[in-house]
């Protein structure tokens, strides 16, 4: 507890920090009420709580639900806190990060190239395999005509969106025993304008490993997102509405392997302000299969990272204060490095 407390940064003068909070259904001036955004599940209330917590810490927070506001309204801020992860383009999180880089705006999360790596689940798979992390076999399908050729591995299959956040495109139809079923599931995703990643289905349960950015990353306890769907998978509707929540997960002696994965990923892709490593874990065999890593993951009070942090004595406000201060420190270190190189 003491060691972790020493790693957490505390805002010394939050009133001096101007935050630009960006989200699709962010609370807006003048009343900053919970946004009305049909079809966005629990996200408007979640963004409203994040906004209020940042304000309660003492930060000066302005908000927007428009990415173009980065060009017109964000020039007098100290940090962009963007949770804008869904818009009518591929990889919106990369767009926001790259725009901030172009405008020299400090931003929560990580550099655009690392955001791009995390957003492309196929690139992620190949990247972490090079680090020695266990992944399932996979194949990408960009066009319907590509489905004439089955993947070079046998089923059962798991069909999902190659890009996208919040489990977009994942349903119980994602699990298919044979290629005929997998093709039909892929065609449904193509009809929604999605590129497709087909993987060998990994049996077990979903577990996630939250990590807090620091000079030495803080690796928290495993958490299991609850599911009542086939295969205990996390579907798009569960992620959007989050009716079942999360629970701490005890993997026993296997936890050390998860923590080693996090250290390897951090060494290759860090620094990152906060993230989650998602897995399938077979309790019977002890086999873990890495799925993806999620930068700027859900940081609500009932979410995985806050639940795991609470076991270490940290509140949501503690986490958000640390994340803001660490992001600012990370940015200014990079600025000083560029000055030195010049």
Automatic annotation (TrEMBL):
Residues 125-325 form the ATP-grasp domain. SUPFAM superfamilies: Glutathione synthetase ATP-binding domain-like (SSF56059). The keyword Hydrolase does not apply. GO terms for molecular function: ATP binding; D-alanine-D-alanine ligase activity; metal ion binding. Gene3D superfamilies: ATP-grasp fold, A domain, ATP-grasp fold, B domain. Keywords: ATP-binding, Nucleotide-binding. PANTHER family: D-ALANINE--D-ALANINE LIGASE (PTHR23132), D-ALANINE--D-ALANINE LIGASE B (PTHR23132:SF23). This is ATP-grasp domain-containing protein. It comes from Rhodoblastus acidophilus (Rhodopseudomonas acidophila).
